[in-house]
Specification:
single chain; 233 residues
Length: 233
Amino acid sequence: MESVCFTIAAAILLSASAPAQAPGGDSMMNMQAIAQGLGVKCEYCHAGMGSPRTAPVADASRTPSHIEIAKAMIAMTRDLNVKVQAATGKPANETTRVNCITCHRGVAIPGQLSDILTKTALEKGPDAAVAQYRDLRTEYYGHQSYDFSEETLLTAAQQVVRAKPTASIPLLRLNLEFYPKSVRSYTQIAFAYTRTLDDEAAIATLEKALELEPENGMVKGQLEQLKSYRRKR
């Protein structure tokens, strides 16, 4: 079934205008590479065995079909590769090519995990963001799709704390679950507490950070400063 779909897809690409063709090589292999790059099967663009809609988008209010988007992206990556060659002055066989997987990395709609979690935390709350992280980590950990390093949740928390300080704390505690020695997670939790005027909780959190890194001068300074003007809630 899948190989038949790829054959149909290849025929569609070959019948399309030249700018929409995948660059070089066998069209069927190109379609397989596209599907792999987006982490999808052929049905994502081609519903069932019928011919997908391939007409150009005349109505600006209409959402383009997946195959229309794919054709536009194929043309875009081809143009980018030409520009890379021009910018570097190197021939095609000596430059790194831009492909679907360059941005998508195995997911249909690419995006930084920190941005995805930030949006969820602000719109649906921190519990939803924590659950989303766990789900994505279960599905994609060990793949190249998302960055599950310590920095991701720290970045998301930094973006969330500006608007909702308390919403950043569950994200940082989640980071400590996977990175228990993350001093930066503790210092960001302490900062969130100061934004809610809970200096006692911030002091206790910084003291935990110092237990991990007793000689951390920055944490020492923050702790001393906070103790000197601690506020009453």
